[in-house]
Design a protein that fits this description.
Layout lengths: L1 H11 L7 E7 L2 E7 L5 H5 L4 H16 L3 E7 L1
Parallel strand pairs: 2-3
Antiparallel strand pairs: 1-2
């Protein structure tokens, strides 16, 4: 899941070297925290959060195959 989120985020931002994803696993729940450069935050969130919602949907769909629950948090 972590690698998938990194690839998605790096393809959206202007500064892919500042994309950081941290993964915390607690039983069947995985929490992924995404950090990007401040000037790229709008690109990752999108208008009315549409891009962020799409990213979460893709990651959750991939997690269903592994019978896991994923929470994606976007940090500043």
């Amino acid at each position: 899941m972590k690698e998938l989120l990194e690839v998605l985020a790096k393809s959206l931002v202007d500064e892919p070297d500042q994309v950081v994803v941290t993964e915390t696993e607690n039983g069947k729940t995985i929490v992924l925290e995404l950090s990007v450069a401040p000037e790229d935050m709008g690109r990752v969130i999108g208008k009315q959060g549409r891009i962020a919602k799409a990213i979460r949907s893709v990651v959750k769909a991939a997690a269903l195959k592994e019978d896991k629950k994923v929470i994606v948090e976007i940090k500043q």
